[in-house]
Amino acid sequence: MRVLGHDKLCAVVAASRAQAMHRQLARALGQARTIELRLDWLADDREIDHFLRKLKRPRPPVTLIATLRRLVAGGRYRGTIAKQLFYLAEALRAGCQWFDIEVETIRRCPSELIDTLLGEGRQLRSAHFFRRMPRDLERVLGELKRGRPDLIKIAAQCHSLQDACKLARFARGERKLIAIPMGERAVAARILALRAPNGFAYAPIEQVTAPGQMSLEELKSVYRADHINSTTRVYGVIGDPIQHSLSPAMHNAGFRARRINAIYLPFLVENLADFLSSIPSFGISGFSVTLPHKRSILKHLDGCDRLASEIGAVNTVVVRGSGALYGYNTDYVGVLRTLERRLPLRASRVLILGAGGAARAVAFALAKAGSSVCISARRFSQALALAKAVNGEAIARPRLGQQFFDAIVNATPVGMFPAVEESPLEERELNCRLVFDTIYRPELTRLLRLAARRGIETVSGVEMFLAQGTAQWEIWTGERAPVTVMRRAVLAALAGERNDLRRRAKQ
After folding, report:
1. If exposure means fewest CB atoms within 10 Å of the residue's CB, which of 46, 55, 258, 432 is most exposed?
2. Residue range 417-435, pLDDT digits in tens
3. How far is CA 469 from CA 1, 237, 330, 373, 465, in A?
4. CB neighbour class for 110 (10 Å; exposed up to 12, middle 13-18, buried from 19)
C-alpha cells in the first residue's frame, strides 16, 4: 500500500533560495516519485513567490507535497496564518497535489476556511514533537482526526528505542496514520517503519530538516530502503558512538550481491537493556557489537562459543528462533588473517596497546598463535590482568621507549574519527618492524603516519575490519561472503569521506 503518492520514500527539497530549491527539485525528480517542498526554508515571501512562479507541474506519476511550517510548529516560516494558507493555495495551483498543515494552525483556523482555500488539494494533517514523545498519543490522534483529513502524521522525538517501538505499535492499528520517529536513537527505527503497510520516510536531497534523517541517496544506495518489506531480515550494529560506522556499507553490499532480502542498520545504544528489549519488536536476527559493549553484552547472553567466553568479549550475536542470544568473537579471526600474512607469529614479540574488548581478542589470538604478548594500557592494573590471562607481560608506558617489538598493535580508540590528530604513542616509542592500527576510520591514522615516517611497515585497520565483518556475515547467513564486493564497498565509503573532507576544507 502506498499511503501518500507513489513511494514510501519521500524526497525532501529545502533551501533558502528559490534557485537552489529548483536545482534540488530537478535532482529529486530523477530519484523519487514523491517529493516534499519545504517552502518554509525559503528566506522570505519574495523567494517563495519566485519559487512558485517557476514551479512547473511535473508529469505523473510524481506527487508533490507543499509544506510551509510556521515557527510555532517547529518550522521556519515567520509569516501569519493567513499568509501560510495563501501560499499553500498558490502551491496547489502551481502543481502540488498535497499540502501539509500542522495542528498549531488547525487550532486557530476554522475548518471551513481551510476547505475553501485549500479544498482542491489533499490534506496531510501533522503534529510534531521535537522534545519528547507525547504521553497520550490517543489524544493527539483524536485532535488530528477532526475535520477528516486525507492522511495524518505524528512525528516524535524518541529518547530510547522503546519510544520508537511504542510509536510503531501505535501506528499499526491506524491505516491513515504516518508515524515518524525522530532523533539519533531512532535512525534505524525510521527505516524499519517502512516494513509496515503505512510506512513512510522523509529523506533530504541536501538539507536535513528533522533530527535523525538520512539522505535519500544513502537510504537507497547503502540501505536499499526502497526495497524493504515485511519479510526483510534485520541485522545491525550496536555501539556509542555509531553514526560513522562502515559496517552498514559492508554488510548491505554483501546482501545485495547475494540477493538476500536483509538489511543491516546502525543502532545508537547507550543502554543495553533498552536495545535488548526492542529486539522482538524490530525482529532482529543478529547484530554486531562495538564500543563500549563488547564485554558488558556477555551477561545478557544465553550462551556463547568457548573462544568468546575465554576472551571475555563478544562482537557478534545471533538471535535464535526462540529469541535466545548466542555470542561469538570474530575479532579473533580478523587479527589472525591480518597479521599471519606479514609476520611469523610463533616467533614474534608483539606489544598490544589497550586492555578492553578489542585488545583481549588481539591478545588471545596472538597468544594462541605462539607470539610473545606484551600489554600496555592506561590503567596498569588492567594491563596486568590481561597479561596474566594470556601468559604475557605487562609493560608500563615509561618503559616502552627502551623496548623492541616485532609488531605494535593499537587496540584502543585513540586516533579514531573525529580525533584524527591523536596518537596512542609518540614517534620515539615506535621501536618495531610493523605497526598495526585496528582503527579503520581514518584509514591512515596519525599513529600509522608516524610509523611510516620512520620507515616502519604499517597495516590499516581496514584489513581486520573486513576479515571480522565477513566472518560475521557468514555466521548470520550460512553462505560464503562476497569478500571482493564487501571490500569494494568499504573502500568506496572511505574514499567518499576523504573527498567530502577535501571539499569542506576548500569551502
Report:
1. 46
2. 889 999 999 999 999 999 9
3. 35, 11, 8, 25, 6
4. exposed
Residues in the chain: 507
Nearest to 313, CA basis, from 387, 279, 363: 363
CATH 3.10.129.10 matches 339-459: no
Q: Taking the CA atoms of the chain, what radius of gyration do you get in angstroms?
A: 26
Arch. (CATH architecture) of 238-329+467-491 = 3-Layer(aba) Sandwich (3.40)
Annotated domain spans of the chain:
9-230, 238-329+467-491, 339-459
- Catalytic-labelled residue, pool 8, 294, 368, 506: 294
Two domains, one topology: 238-329+467-491 and 339-459: yes
Q: What ranges in 371-460 are assigned the alpha helix state H?
A: 380-389, 446-453
**Sheet with 262-268: strands ordered across:** 262-268, 233-239, 284-289, 316-319, 325-328, 303-304
Phi-psi region of 124 (alpha: psi -120 to 50; beta: other; left: phi over 0): beta
Active site residue 294: yes
For 438-491, how does the pLDDT look when each residue is reduced to its tens digit (9 = 90+)? 999 889 999 999 999 999 999 999 999 999 999 999 999 999 999 999 999 999
Phi-psi label, residue 465: left if phi above 0, alpha if psi -120 to 50, beta otherwise: alpha
Instruction: Say what the pTM is.
Output: 0.92
Residue 220 neighbours by CB distance under 10 Å: 17
